[in-house]
């Protein structure tokens, strides 16, 4: 009898779970007689969920993916039976909810990250329990610090254990620690010298709910995106504050508690607030491209893929997107859009807007609007209570376009130069395309109107470390914050990642970054490409740090998509 083929999965968050399920599915569908043994490594306490979706995080952390999307697209696991192994089916998200069908025509529901984490952790546990007692699975709750190729496979080193040999390894690692920026490094030294509180990592936000923050504390928050909203909720709801809906209004009211800090100061490099997703399915469908528009968009991508040597930037993508946005905008109900331009004029204006977000036009929300005013306009658009601006429309169309890209064109075999440009435009879209629930904007506006959230310094203030905190200055106003909170999550740039695992790969010179701005070069099946252009048959990478080879790396649903299946099928084929 042949020995087991040993496969290591390093990092068992959603992507590691998807890799594990895909492996067994590929095995079931193959005629390989090789027996598999899987060795799993996950440092966090909740495999399947990992650190980002941990079920024990504060309930105020919300997903920015609504249940309508999760119900339609997060499919379950079929029952798997091969050799002596039986793995039971697990329901898709919709069936797992086990509740009466929600009426998304009135309001979309955004689950907490903890709720999604419970789903993912349960899904993993049913699989692990099915294999308990067999010699087909091993689990190490440890951090991996190094993976090295060996003559016949690879060796995995953890912080505390002896080296573990495997025939194959896949790195399904998500958010990795990064080196501090110069600003954070200086702030860190200042905090240490003056015994001040600096929270460098956006998560876990529950860490903010401490005695060191009181009603008298002024807290400054660096960043104006999704993580900041989670942190603001922790600093308000987490301290006993309450948000109430106002009757006959889309606005909410904030009632502070005696314990909650009375001053939260938010700032970012451009002072632009996140744009909420439409409030319900009806308004969301205004922005949904039709079959013909999707077909035209897909054609542009496929044409580019057939002529990769002549593609050196993202023009093919943004031109197709501008064309699709123009068509969608002309279909928005007349009472909900501004004056009419021709399709060609709209397409040209949209292209200009994509290239230059501060383009000025009557159809575009002013780039330099005060932050509160901008939030109020965006909230009204999300509820369909004011004319839709072209930038808001573009952002929502981007979201649908990304759905096509992430699902069907995860691996675009373009040049480095073109991939850097594609990723640059995708990242730039996220203020809209990755927008929060309307509830988040309602809460932020309520906090501003209650005098708690201070936007006077929101647009790139001067920041000076002082003995009792950090002094923020803008437009002849100043304020001192005793606590500084970083809510900026670093982009997955390989050169900025400080984790020992990635450092060892880079020092080894066996791997080839896509570009200094992105991640590792991989093939479509996740095989890591070396400096000499060869692929490592025994070490693969799926996830954030393949950004530039793969797109859609930050999408939960796509963790269960093509890349994991391609990796598993390729591995089983090699056997």
Examine the coordinates and then state which fold CATH places here, giving the name of the CATH topology of the largest domain: FAD/NAD(P)-binding domain
CATH homologous superfamily placement of the largest domain: FAD/NAD(P)-binding domain
In terms of DSSP E residues, the strand content is 15-25%
The radius of gyration over CA amounts to 24 Å
Q: Report the major sheet.
A: 6 strands, mixed
The structure class reads: alpha/beta
Residue windows where pLDDT falls under 50 for at least 5 positions: none
Which percent bin holds the helix content? 25-40%
How many helices does DSSP assign?
17
Shape: globular
Average pLDDT value?
Answer: 87
Main CATH class of the largest domain: Alpha Beta
Side by side, the strands of the main sheet go: 5-2-1-9-21-20
- How far the N terminus sits from the C terminus, by CA atoms, comes to 15 Å
CATH architecture of the largest domain: 3-Layer(bba) Sandwich
Number of strands: 21
Number of domains: 3
């Amino acid at each position: 009898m042949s020995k087991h083929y040993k496969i290591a999965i390093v990092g068992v968050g959603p992507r590691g779970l998807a890799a594990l399920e895909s492996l067994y599915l590929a095995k079931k569908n193959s005629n390989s007689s090789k027996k598999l043994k899987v060795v799993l490594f996950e440092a966090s306490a909740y495999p399947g969920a990992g650190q980002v979706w941990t079920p024990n995080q504060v309930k105020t952390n919300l997903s920015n993916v609504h249940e309508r999307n999760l119900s339609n697209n997060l499919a379950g696991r079929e029952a798997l039976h091969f050799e002596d192994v039986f793995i039971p089916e697990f329901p898709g998200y919709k069936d797992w909810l086990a509740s009466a069908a929600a009426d998304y025509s009135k309001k979309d529901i955004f689950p907490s990250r903890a709720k999604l984490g419970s789903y993912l952790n349960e899904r993993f546990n049913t699989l692990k329990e099915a294999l308990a007692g067999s010699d087909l699975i091993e689990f190490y709750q440890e951090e991996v610090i190094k993976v090295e190729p060996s003559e016949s496979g690879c060796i995995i080193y953890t912080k505390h254990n002896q080296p573990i040999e495997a025939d194959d390894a896949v790195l399904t690692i998500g958010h990795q620690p990064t080196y501090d920026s110069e600003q954070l490094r200086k702030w860190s030294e200042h905090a240490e010298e003056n015994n001040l509180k600096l929270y460098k990592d956006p998560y876990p936000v529950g860490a903010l709910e401490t005695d060191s923050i009181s009603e008298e504390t002024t807290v400054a928050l660096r960043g104006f995106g999704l993580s900041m909203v989670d942190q603001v909720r922790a600093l308000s709801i987490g301290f006993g504050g309450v948000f109430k809906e106002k009757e006959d209004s889309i606005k909410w009211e904030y009632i502070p508690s005696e314990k909650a800090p009375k001053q939260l100061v938010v700032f970012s490099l451009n002072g632009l607030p996140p744009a909420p997703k439409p409030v319900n399915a009806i308004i969301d469908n205004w922005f949904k491209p039709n079959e013909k528009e999707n077909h035209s968009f897909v054609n542009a991508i496929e044409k580019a893929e057939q002529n990769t040597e002549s593609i050196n930037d993202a023009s093919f993508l943004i031109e197709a997107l501008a064309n699709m946005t123009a068509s969608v905008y002309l279909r928005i109900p007349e009472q909900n859009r501004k004056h009419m331009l021709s399709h060609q004029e709209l397409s040209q204006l949209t292209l200009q807007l994509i290239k230059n977000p501060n383009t000025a036009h009557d159809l575009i929300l002013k780039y330099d609007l005060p932050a509160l005013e901008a939030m109020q306009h965006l909230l009204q658009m999300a509820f369909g209570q004011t004319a839709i601006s072209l930038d808001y429309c573009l952002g929502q169309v981007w979201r649908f376009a990304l759905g096509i890209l992430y699902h069907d064109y995860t691996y675009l075999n373009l040049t480095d130069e073109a991939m850097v440009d594609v990723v640059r435009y995708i990242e730039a879209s996220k203020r809209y395309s990755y927008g929060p629930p309307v509830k988040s904007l309602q809460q932020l506006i309520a906090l501003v109107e209650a005098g708690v959230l201070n936007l006077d310094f929101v647009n790139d203030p001067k920041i000076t470390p002082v003995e009792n905190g950090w002094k923020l200055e803008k437009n002849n106003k100043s304020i001192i914050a005793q606590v500084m909170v970083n809510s900026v999550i670093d982009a997955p740039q390989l050169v900025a990642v400080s984790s020992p695992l990635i450092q060892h790969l880079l020092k080894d010179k066996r791997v080839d970054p896509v570009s200094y701005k992105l991640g590792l070069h991989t093939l479509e099946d996740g095989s890591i490409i070396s400096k000499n252009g060869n692929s490592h048959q025994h070490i693969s990478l799926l996830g954030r740090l393949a950004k530039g080879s793969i797109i859609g790396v930050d999408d939960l649903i796509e963790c269960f998509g093509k890349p994991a299946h391609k990796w598993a099928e390729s591995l089983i084929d090699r056997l």
